[in-house]
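[audit] Reproducing an earlier prediction to check determinism. Same input, same settings, fresh worker. If the C-alpha cells differ from the archived copy the diff job will pick it up downstream; this log only records the rerun itself.
[audit] input (70 residues):
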Amino acid sequence: MTDEQSDQERVESRAHLLPEEAAAGSDDPRAQAAAILAESDIREEDRNAAPDTVLEQRTSDQTVAVEPPD
C-alpha cells in the first residue's frame, strides 16, 4: 500500500460526517475531511502549531493538590 492509498483511505473514512457536521451540512465532505486530516497531521508533527494553544506536559501528581487526611 502506498502513502497515497493510505491517505485516500483516511479521507474516505473521515468523510463520513459526524452528527454535528451532518446537522450543519457540508458541500464537499471529502474536501472537508482532507483539510481536517492535513491540519491534524501538521499539529502532530509540530505540537506548537495549534493557534492560541499552550500544551502543558504535567503528571497527575503535579496537577492535583493532595491534602493530608484528618
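[audit] rerun output stored. Observation attached for the diff report: DSSP finds four helices and no strands in the chain.
[audit] end
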